[in-house]
Every structure is written in C-alpha cells, then in structure tokens.
C-alpha cells in the first residue's frame, strides 16, 4: 500500500477553501501581534519525528494483547507503514530500528525502500532486556550492570553489532535503554551495578564512530520493580559525562515518577548541552505509553516551550533526535501515530507563538500573572490552521487521519497481509 | 473602590471591533458544524461561581507568608473586593463565608452591601480545624470524630451556629470540611472515629433547615499526615447517604491522591444524585491550591465534560454549588481570581462544544480514535470569543484582567486600605 | 514430588534445641507483659492462606518473561506444588482456581489430589480480560461494562460457568476482577459503564448459590491506562451494596494509588461488614505484585492490626478469604511463596501482640506518643519463634525455605517435568 | 532543667536485670552467627545526631498550629532542651542552628552552656525563604536564583554572615536549603535561574573557610508548587561539582517525589564521594516531617544499609552530618525527638547486623531469595537490647522516653517557662 501524491492533492482540494479561510483568520491575528507566521509555518514543516519499528503493531500488557489486522510482519512492511504515515503528514520521515527484531536480510534493498518513502534511519535501539532464542548468556539479572563479566561482554558486543548494522544503513546514533535493576532490596549492590554500567557504556562508547552519538535513557521502574540502575536524569547525565562529548541523555516522557517537573529537566540538560533525544508519549499513571497529548497536553506544551527556547539559545546542545515511543493496545497503530504526530505539531506550534521577549520582560518584573497570561495566550490559540499550512506546503494531507480513513488504508493492509499477522518484536 | 457600568462600557468600546471579528469567525465555523452558539453563550453567561471570603488576601505556607498591599480587613471590604470581580466578569455573583472569620456585626448592612454588588450568599463554611482564642475545647485531636463527647458537642454546636448565621444572611447550604484525622499510626481507632463522625454529622443534619443542603468534603491528607477520617469520595458518599437526601458529597479538585481520575468520581456522584458542590483550583503535587487551569487544563475540561453531561442528563442530581478555593501566595489575589474565573469559563465553553451525539455514536462503535478526536476538537477550539460574548451580554469587561489593570484597582485599594492590612482568617 | 511427614520431623529435629531456647525467651518476656502466648500461637497456626493456581509458574512483564524450570503444566501439577508449600508450612491449605486456565478434566480425581494434600478450594476466579481461542465475543472493549449486550451476556455466562465448576469442586465463593475501563478520555461513557457493570453483577449475583459469596475487586489502573470502571473501594462497596448481602469488597494490596491509607479502608469495610477477601502482595510503584512484606512490612503490620481488631470486634463481617496474589519474575515461584507466607504470619503475629486495652486507653487520653510506642513495641519484637512454634505444632517445617532447599525440591521438579514447561495461564 | 548522672544511674538500676537477660540472649545468638557484638554496640554508642534548634517547639501547618507548654523561647533554653535529650540518650550531642532565629547575644556564654551539655555545633542553616522585619530586599521571588542582582547579593551576604557566626561558635559546615522556585509555569526562566543559583553558590563557596564544608539541599516542591530550582539530587550534585571539593549534596528523607528509591541515591552519592549530610524524618504523602521511622521503618533500614556500606567502603566520602529534621505538630517535641533517636539507632543497629560477606556472595550467585533473607533476618531481629547496651555504656537512660516521663521533664519546663511561650522561628 502506497499513497501517491495525486491522491493527496485530490483529497486536499475539497478542504482547501475552508482551510484558507481559517488560516487567513489565524494568520492575520497573529501577524497583528507581531508574529512572523511564515517562519512559524516553516519550522512546523521542517519538524520530523522518527517512528520506531515496534510501534506499527498492536502493543499489549502483561495481562494479554488484542491483535490488530494487517500488522506488518517484516521490516519491509514496517517501512511501508511508515511510508503511509510520511505521505500523509510529511512529518514522519525517519525510522528508529530495534535490533535484533529488525536485522535487514538485504541491507541495500531496505535502504531503497526507505528512500522511496523519504525515510531516514534515525537512532538504532539495542535490546538487552530479553533473551533471544539460542542466546549464550541471559539478561535475567541484568546486562551492562551484571555481576558476571561474561554477560556484560555479551551485552557490549550486542551493542557493537547494532552500531555496525546501523552504519550500513546510514544511522548516526545509538540509543541504549537498560532494563537493568533489581526486583528486591538486597538483590543488587548499587555501587557495583553503577560502576559496571559506567564501564560497559564506556566500552561501547569507545567504538562509537566519530560522527555518531550515544543516547542514554533513564527510567525509574518497570520491568524491574524495586530499582533501576539508571533511575533518573541525574544518573544518565553523570554517565554521559563519564563517557564523553558524544554521549547524551535521552528523555522519554513516560519515564518519570509521579508529578515530576519534566520541562525543568529538559531545560537543565539543554543548558548543559547534554540533551540528546526525546521519546514522545503520554501517561496518567506510569509508563503507560499512550497517544501523545491525550492526557496532559499542557505539560507537552510546557516541554516544547523549553525545547523551542533551547533550540534558539543553546548552541552548546546538538540538534535533537525526536521519536514517538507509544504502544497501541486498542487503537489502529497507524491512526494512533497520526494522532500523536498531530499532538506534537500542535504543541510545537503553540510554543512557537510564545512571545519570548514579552515573557522575558515579565519575568524580570516578577509579573507572575503576566507570565502565565503569555503562555496561556499561546496555548489557547487554535493553531491547527498553522499545522495544516505546513502540511499543505509539503504536499501532505490537510487532515491526515481523515485522509487515512477515506483511503481505507487499514482495509487495504488487511487485504494485503491478512488478519492474523503479528508484528515482529514485542 | 467600586467599578461602575459606564467605565466598563467605555473600556469595552475600544475592543469591540476586534472582538466582533473573532466572534464571527468562531461562531460561523461552529454553527457550520451544527452548534447552537447562542445557547452556548447563554450558558456561559449564566454560570456563577462563588468566591470564598478567605481568598481575597495573600495565602501562605507553613514556611511563611508574603503579604500583599490593600488586603481587605473586614467583611465589608471582602464583599467590595468580590464586587470588583463581579463587576468585571459578571460570573462572580456569590460569596462563601467562613465562620468565625466572617461573623457580621450588622447583618442587615452586610446584606445590603452584598446586594449592591449583586452578590448572593452561597455555602457557609464552618471551622473546626483551629482553636479560636478563648475556646472552651480544643480541636487538636479532632472535632466531629473526637473521642471526647464534649469536643464533639462543641463542634456540632459551632456548625449549628454557622447555620443560624447563614440563615440570617440568606444562605442555603453548609459545607463541612473536617481536618480530623491522625498524624501517626495507632493514634486513632479508625472505626470509632468514623462512627463518631457519622453520629456528629447526623446531629448537625437534623437541625438543617428544610431548604438547606449539607456538603461533606473529603481529603486524603493535610493537615493530618497519616490519615484523614473522611479520606475519599467513598467515605463522604457513605456518610451523605447515612445523613439523608439533603446531604451531598463536595469535590475539591486538590483533595486527591496522585493520578486520581477525578472526572470518573464526578460522573459516579452525578449518576447517584449525590454531587453537591465543587471547589475549583489546580495543583501539581498536593493540595497546592494554585490558579484554576494553570497546571492541568485538559483535566479540567474532562471534568467539565462530565459536569455538562450530568447537568443535561441527571435530573436526580441538584444544581451544583461552584466555588473557587485557591490560595494566592505570590500573585495579587484579585488578579489570580480573575485568571481562575477565565479558566473555568473556558473549560466550560469547550465542554459545551462537545458533540454528545457523535460521541455517543463513536462510543457505541468502540471507535476510540474518533472519541478522542471529538473531545480534542472541542478542546483545541479557541473559545475565548464565546466567553467574551457572554461577558459583553452581561455588561462585564471583555478582558477582565486587562481592565482590572487599566482601572488600577490594586493601587486604589492600597490607597484606601494601606499596605499593611492583613485579611482576617488564615 | 511429595514431602512426607517423616522427612519434616527429621528436618526439624536438628533445629529443635535452638528453637526451644528462642521460644522460651520470647514466650517468657511476653507472658510477663500479660500476653497469652498459647492463644497467639494457636491463632497463627489456624491461619490459612490460599495459593492461586497461576502463581506457581514464572510471571513476566510486557517486556518479556524469563521462564523457570519445572513449572507445573497441568492442574494436577499445580496442586502438587501447593502440596509442597502446605507440607512445609501447614498454612497454605487452599487453592484459588482461575477459569478457563484450570478447568478440571476429571473433577473427582482433582478433588482427591487436593484432599491428599489437605488443600481446600477457595474462591474461584473468572477471566473476562483476555480473549480465549475461538471466543465468540471479544473483551477488547470491556466485559461486564461493554456497550454491547451480547458481550455483557457472554461475560455473565462465563461467570456462571465458573460458579458451576466451583460448585462441583466444593468452592464457596467467586472473585470478580474486571479489567474493564478505558485507555483514553472519551472512550467510555462513565455513567453507562457503571450502570452496565452494576446490572451485570446483579445478573451473576442472582445465580449465586445460597451459601456462596461474591467478591468484587477494585483497581485504579492497568491494564487500562485512563480509567477503570471499578476504580476504588468506594465503587466496589457501592456495587456490593447494590447486589446484596452475599456480595463483598475484595482488597488487593497492590490495587491502590500512591500513598493510599489502605488500613483505613480495611477498617471502614470491616465496620460496614463488607470486607470479603484479601489479596496479599507488595509493591513500590504500581501493582508490582512482588513478595509480600518485601517492600513495606510496617504497612502490612498496620493492616493486620485492623484485621485482628475486626476479627475480634466485628461480628457483622464474615470470615475473610485470604490469598497471595504475587508474580514471580525472577525468583523460584515456590521459594517466593514461602517468603510471602512467612511475611504474612510474622505481620499477623506482631499484630496479635498489640495490647488492645492499653492502646484504647492511650487513644482516649490522646497520648499519641504512647499509641505509637505500643504499636512499635509489638512490631519490633522478634516474633519468629512464635511462628515456628505454630508450625511445629502443626507438623510443618521449622524453617520452610531452608527445608525446601535442603530437600532439593526444585531439582526434583525439573527432573520430573523438565526445564521447558510453561505454566498454563499468563 | 538539667538531668544529672545520678538520677540516670538510679533510674537504670531498676531495669538492669531485665536488660541483662535480654542482652545476653540477643548477644549470644548473634555471636553464634559470627557477629562481633561488642563492635556493633560501640558503633551504636558512637553515633551522634544533631538536633536542629527549630525542632524544640511545636510545629504547624498552613492551617494553623497548636502550641505546647514550656517551649524554649531563647537559644539558651533550646540548648538546655537538647541537654535533656543528650543526657537521656548520649546520642544527641550536637545542635544545628538557624540564622537569624538563633543569633547568640553572648557567644562565649552560649558556647559554655553547650559545652556543659556535651553539645557540639553542627551545620549552620541560613534562611533565605522568609523576609525578616526591616529586610532591605524580599525573597518573595527567590533568593540565590533571583533575577535581581541586588537580591542575590543580599542573600549571598546573609550566608556569609551565617558562616561568620558559625565560625565563632566552632561549627564547620553550612547547609543551604533554598525554597527558590516558581508557583506557575512561565514565572521563571529555568536556565537563568539555575545559572544564577550556580553563580551565587560559588560566591558563597569562595568564602567558605578552609576546614568547612557546604551542604546543598534539594527538594522537589513546597513552598513553591510548580518548580524548585534545586529539585533533585542530580541538580544538587551538579552544583556541588561546580563549586568544588568542599561542596556536597545533603539528603533530606522527606524531599522526594512519591516512590523514589532514596537508598539508591545515597549509594550513588557515596560512590562519588559527594554525600555530605542527612536529614532524618518520615512521611507518607509529602514532606510531612513526622517522627523518624513512624511510617516506613524498612525504608529507613535499607538506607542505613547503604550508609553502613559506604562508611565501610567509601574512603572517598567524608564522614556525614546527621540531623533530625522533623516537625512536632501534636506531640511533645522532646518526646517526639526521643522516638526519632530511638528509631534511628534501631535502623542503624539492624543494618550493622547484615552479613555483608554472605550478601555479596548471594549477589554474585544471583540468589535473590537469599539476598532478601539476609536483609530480613537482620531487620526482624529485635535489636533493642543492643541499643540499650550502647546507652548503658555511655551513662544514658536504658529507656529514654520512659525516663523522660518519670522525671516529669515537661511539667518542670512548664513550671520554669510557662504555658504560653513560643519557640523562636517558625
């Protein structure tokens, strides 16, 4: 299934008039406030978020899984799915692979498929939280933090393999997420676990290609329920510093304790030049991995406020690797991803509307009421016409979700692939 | 300080053109979707939220308090402050008094002042969490749940006194918030504490005037840090049922454990006809009592979705008592309240835009994606022109906060009252 | 694998002297305080906790599962595993079955095996959170709360089937745990979902045999991540009241929001005669289902304090159904269960030491310091000799875990069953 | 009021026989396991925890305060109160002062009083979270992080004043706790606030005497309810590194988000040689500041496990500054502190019982069950006789709380000071 440019043009034509009316209204009122709307639209249009290969099939919980028809059962099919997302939005121009689930049989062929969809290879993900059939060592009691040197070496080697595969595909970064930790007090010697982790990360880092970056993820709990060795940004930051200048912290929105002020963490990392990547999702209770913006859209906006500020003011921080890391337990995965992309672009657009100069002024005067007004004014603006304008500019669909449904994509995929496929991986 | 109608008309005239343009745009696009905009505007206009007398001065924390100039030091001045809010918004047409802080010296005079501002007397609040100078009994170890019959009787009598004062003023309801609980395991016999509370509430209830209602508030912790006797809606609901049909549960947004799904509680209480009142505020960590909508505006919208549904579909539930229960630690209290009122009206307006028929249809088809789209479409709409329209209709200010500042209200209040007054109460 | 009485006697003989010394010391000092040690030991000895059939194999998370050797692959083998636990502890004399995982092929044979191990059939568990192969309806969008009458009827019928199977085995209760809820705002109409749930539960209730009880479990989240229809004790209590006097609330320790005061909920339910059952486990973050007492043993003690009080003072509440509901992700399941049983008995023993008369006196005097001292004195006492005495009395092993290891039970089970079996169910 | 040695000897004599019996029993069974009981007792006896001067009066919440009779109203009286605690326990041989509440009028006299009680001057605490009468600048919008250079300089100068006063008294460390943060999104520019804080801390640090240490406290929220500039250990650690080798992180048990694994933070800081001090208290919900060990004693034990390990294995980390930072809302403050001291010593003693060699061995074998057994065995041991032995050795009371009551200390204090004194400070 591939959506061609013409179908999108045809689809758009029916909504163009309404769109133009909306856009003119929003655009006019923003220009009146002194905003450069064209520049905002361009920024939205340039924003690209990677889709992880594992997000294209139905997710599940420890209580079970309800599968979805037409799930992709090969890397090729996963790329085709992302191709659909990218054709509809022109904001999903990258894939993030997971090894060993996505080892290409024919690298060249895979690169060509990706290219045909305009998809780049973003960060590579290693997996040291599951045992693969035939594995020589087990990660049951940890990987990079394991008390056994053999297991640590095995996990390090796996990461080096992932880098090699990534190099062939043209990726430029490695994301290390470690489930390593303990389910019970006493199980781990915290100090040794941390030292082993640091040493192992350094071992991987020393083989990192010159133009690559390494992202170190953190998470307070799950799948371990007492402690996780890299439990918070502070630990990740410390380890990234220990590794070197190509190592960075990666923030996943769902990986925080209740009530954490995530935007402040983002600001700190940007100031220190150590924010490497960002995994989008949303949650109400734990690492729920639900659709971006479906639970706390204002928090997402506040985070984007810091990101926009950092991208403007922190040359010390490299450009960021964006990825959607959600799980789709009851929705069509592609529809869910379209909703996530929309929520991301909306939050980004709102953040771009913040009058940074006024805000700075109000902060200097400790005019707390006005600071809040400035943020809420941006947030309460209906920015959807700006997002649509960005899409129109890029030949994407004005209303991607509606287009997806009107093109009957899922029906087509089920016809192609059947109702019982299961996406590789989780 | 009193703001007259003419100043507001003058103020509005300068923004009228912009407003009309905005309103027409939003109104047109909503009407096109089949919405009755006039009815929405009317509902917004009819919405009245009570201001508690204690919210007009600076709040504080256990670490101290930074006072504000021009704070009201008498009940008269408090009413005048609410008069300002009501003149600017026409949405603050009620006061909620706290006894013993607000015992009127001259009831008739107070009633006249209130009437002159268009302010009704909403729920009366009793105070059994502090000892007043000269008190015969101490609430240090509880009030209605106390092991001592003398203390319980003393607290019951206080509530009866509050009812009497309320009757003279024309109030029709009593809100009982109990700090009663324990700071340490073992301190309380939970079963006895609950039984005493139930008996005490019944004693108060039996003297409740025929046309009054009693609201029973719940809260998980603070000021007690191990247990609170009425810790959750389930306990409050049980007690309200035990008292009788004039007893209801009152929901304060800040009185919940982390991650609680409050909108579901609201729906349950509405279904059972036992939701009596609502205290608005916002919070990130605990009972932070910050400006409504300043932290989790989407959660507020979801709650209003349930309220709108209930007001439409639950004749078994009486009309609700709305109140803002926030604390103003660093903002001008009146500005803070204006921001809260705005946030409430915006959330209410957004909830009124939800297409309940489409939503019902999507729910029946388990079209989860569409359900979300319907809610988000309403939420993402810029409804501020609708709120302004409601205000214009009622002769309130188009932009209350801006008007407040342009009228230099605080400067005036400081001139009148001085810089060192302290609001009675907390 | 079956452990006979003689091996246990032999095992115990080597520790008898040390035990007797310890017991005499503790016993003497408790008797001196006026405690009836014999009665305490008898109560400990009488305490029986059910083992759920699904807890005998390795658990897992959504990120994967590390299997364990010698897992039981049939109901017979599960009963044999519990037989081992019961022989070692004489506190695990019941099993809680899960349908459809544990439908007996030959009911009579199963009953005989159970009897040979001294195992009774405790509460039956229905499963409406997963779709079984060939299922006619799907629970993807709910079961008893589903918008579709067909699905609700299907789920009701399943519960009636479970009752029937339970009757044949001699069980006397049904536990209903519902995953029903929503992953996203808008997905569910809360009021209808609650009404459907109530109606469905009543339909099941009306077929409940005269001498049966129905337990209604609650849980705030997981596997649904936005709302769960029976989200808290208040909802469960309301539903149990609506069903009738044979319906009760069931408390699972892991099913609460952060910081919930569970012991207060227990006290309230006991007072109202509506506490039906109890699922033991422990957790630090969410429903982690780790070993009982491994994270918050003092909280467990405080809960037992309420349970002991209720069993003594609340004739209105029936005797409770106790069960361990833990998951064993990295430990040998049987060892994990032995640790859980030990933790339960220790907490129970400590609670039995509390001087209720002194506590009552201190509470009446508001001597908070002394209340705490009384609880802590009981908690700080080393009660392990009392638990051992109870076991010795019942011909169980003095040190069950040590005995399990010295008998090389797991090695034996692997020899019998192999290394690759997978327990039926999750 | 001063308790002399003879009264304590007399008091002890009546409990000596029972004590000796208990001690012999515990001691024998521990020695049999290979433990050096004498060394454990010595370590307990050496342990000294500072009492903060503000903890000797009744605390309160934002809802009010219930005062206590006989509260100390001068620094002299505060030292006398600590003298009572130290006489009874010989574990409270230090005071931690708070400036400006405790500025001595006559330094020499104060030093003599302290010496007469065996009290050393531990860390000095500065106060930049409240405005003092006549203050030239206000901390309403922050101190070391303020946008105004004048305010920052004022706060820096205050800290230098505190150092000067501390030097005169013989203190060797400064604790900086900052309330600095924001109540609302937008109020603060996070990056600037952090930079200002870093610069201000460095300014203070450069005047730190050669043999002093600076402790940087962190806290996620309260009194600010949206963000705190030093929100977590990671931020504090980063700032301590930026200042230099005499700067350290200070951990206060109550300053963490729900469910934080604090013991892991402790281990990380010890490994990095950056753990400076420790504030003991306990909490169920937020920074509740209740009696140490009254809510989560097992968590306290796990933390002590890390501390004991670090004191043994981390020469890179300096000796720690221990302090009790609790608030006494309804208990006699001195009784509350006695309960806290007892809980600390018990947790310390339990941690000292852990067989580190066995634990290490079990960890290397991934014998998770055994790891847990080792910890629980230590925790379940009744160590009170060891704590008593340590006290007896030091001429302290065998049962300090009981002795306090039998000496009628509070009655005496009320006689001396009256019923209406209010402790200076909060």
From TrEMBL, chains A, B, C, D:
Q: Which Gene3D superfamilies does this UniProt record tie to the protein?
A: Divalent-metal-dependent TIM barrel enzymes
Species assigned in the record? Christiangramia crocea
Q: Recorded GO terms, molecular function?
A: isomerase activity; metal ion binding
Name of protein: TIM barrel protein
Determine if Membrane is one of this entry's keywords: no
The answer on whether this UniProt entry bears the keyword ATP-binding reads: no
Enumerate the UniProt keywords alphabetically: Isomerase, Manganese, Metal-binding
């Amino acid at each position: 299934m591939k959506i061609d440019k013409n179908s999108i043009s045809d689809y758009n034509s029916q909504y163009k008039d309404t769109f133009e009316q909306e856009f003119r209204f929003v655009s006019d009122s923003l220009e009146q406030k002194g905003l450069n709307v064209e520049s905002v639209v361009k920024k939205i249009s340039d924003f690209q978020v990677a889709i992880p290969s594992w997000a294209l099939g139905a997710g599940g919980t420890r209580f079970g899984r309800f599968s979805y028809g037409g799930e992709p059962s090969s890397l090729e099919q996963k790329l085709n799915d992302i191709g659909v997302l990218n054709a509809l939005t022109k904001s999903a121009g990258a894939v993030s692979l997971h090894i060993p689930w996505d080892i290409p049989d024919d690298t060249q062929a895979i690169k060509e498929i990706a290219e045909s969809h305009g998809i780049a290879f973003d960060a590579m993900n290693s997996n040291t939280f599951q045992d693969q059939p035939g594995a020589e060592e087990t990660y049951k009691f940890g990987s990079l933090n394991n008390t056994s040197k053999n297991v640590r070496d095995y996990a390090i080697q796996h990461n080096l393999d992932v880098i090699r595969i990534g190099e062939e595909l043209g990726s430029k970064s490695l994301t290390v997420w470690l489930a390593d930790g303990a389910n019970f007090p006493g199980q781990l010697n915290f100090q040794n676990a941390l030292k082993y982790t640091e040493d192992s990360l350094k071992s991987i880092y020393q083989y990192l290609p010159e133009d690559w970056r390494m992202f170190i993820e953190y998470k307070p709990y799950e799948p371990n329920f007492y402690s996780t060795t890299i439990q918070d940004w502070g630990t990740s930051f410390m380890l990234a510093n220990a590794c070197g200048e190509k190592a960075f912290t990666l923030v996943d929105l769902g990986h925080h304790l209740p009530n954490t002020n995530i935007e402040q963490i983002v600001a700190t990392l940007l100031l220190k030049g150590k924010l490497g990547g960002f995994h989008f999702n949303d949650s109400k209770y734990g690492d729920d991995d639900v659709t971006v913006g479906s639970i706390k859209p204002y928090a997402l906006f506040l985070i984007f406020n810091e990101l926009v500020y950092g991208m403007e003011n922190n040359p010390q921080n490299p450009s960021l690797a964006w990825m959607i890391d959600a799980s789709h337990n009851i929705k069509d995965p592609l529809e869910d991803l379209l909703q996530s992309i929309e929520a991301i672009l909306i939050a980004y657009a709102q953040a771009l509307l913040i009058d940074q100069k006024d805000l700075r002024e109000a902060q200097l005067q400790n005019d707390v009421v006005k600071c809040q007004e400035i943020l809420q004014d941006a947030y309460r603006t209906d920015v959807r016409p700006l997002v649509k304008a960005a899409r129109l500019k890029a030949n994407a669909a004005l209303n991607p979700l509606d287009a997806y449904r009107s093109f009957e994509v899922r029906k087509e995929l089920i016809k192609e692939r059947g109702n019982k496929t299961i996406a590789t991986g989780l």
